[in-house]
């Protein structure tokens, strides 16, 4: 039998922090945005999902989540990648819902902001890491990293906002 050793050789970023926000406002907005959304159960999110850019022009999202994220990254002198805000969508997953393994290779960074506590961890296999969703937790990681969740087995809800920071391209 041939053994193959796999090694991640590209430098990776993983940030985990906490932000205060109007959590209920965002949960209510997700519940509105998932009604008749064409993204429900049709993407890697096997659950309810708002349209891709649902929060991109949302003033509270920009003030309470996006700009603090930008400031956090801007304050890190080691990060030289230029990026811009990409898609920003809401997710609501319930019993038996899950997220298929995928990545956002077209983006410099992927971000997830959790709106409630839940035991259905986000799994990032390349980092051998699992993240437990807690209200206010923000995670930021390289877009090339694969990530997924398992099927939810409890009759609870998992609400979050996912957003990408795409590579900045100027012509």
Please give a structural write-up:
It is a single chain. With 171 residues, the protein is of the alpha+beta class. It has a domain at 82-171: q2cbj1_9rhob like domain (Jelly Rolls, Sandwich), CATH 2.60.120. Helices cover 16% and strands 32% of the residues. It has two helices and eleven strands, in the order βαββαββββββββ. It has helices at 23-33, 59-74; strands at residues 14-18, 45-46, 48-49, 83-93, 98-99, 107-114, 122-124, 129-131, 137-142, 148-149, 158-167. The strands form three sheets. The protein has a six-stranded antiparallel beta sheet with strand order 1-9-6-11-4-3, with helices on one face. A three-stranded antiparallel beta sheet has the order 8-7-10, with no helix packed on it. It has a two-stranded antiparallel sheet with strand order 2-5. It is globular and about 40 Å long. The termini are far apart. The mean pLDDT is 94.
The total of beta strands comes to 11
Strand fraction: 25-35%
The CATH H-level homologous superfamily of the domain at 82-171: q2cbj1_9rhob like domain
What CATH architecture of the domain at 82-171 would you give?
Answer: Sandwich
The biggest beta sheet is recorded as: 6 strands, antiparallel
Going by helix content, strand content and strand pairing, the class is: alpha+beta
CATH class of the domain at 82-171: Mainly Beta
Provide the low-confidence segments as ranges. Answer: none
Strand order of the largest sheet: 1-9-6-11-4-3
Amount of helix: 10-25%
- Remind me, CATH topology of the domain at 82-171? Jelly Rolls
Per the principal axes of the C-alpha atoms, what is the gross shape? globular
- Give the CA-CA distance, first to last residue: 50 Å
How big is the Rg?
A: 16 Å
Averaged pLDDT, please?
Answer: 94
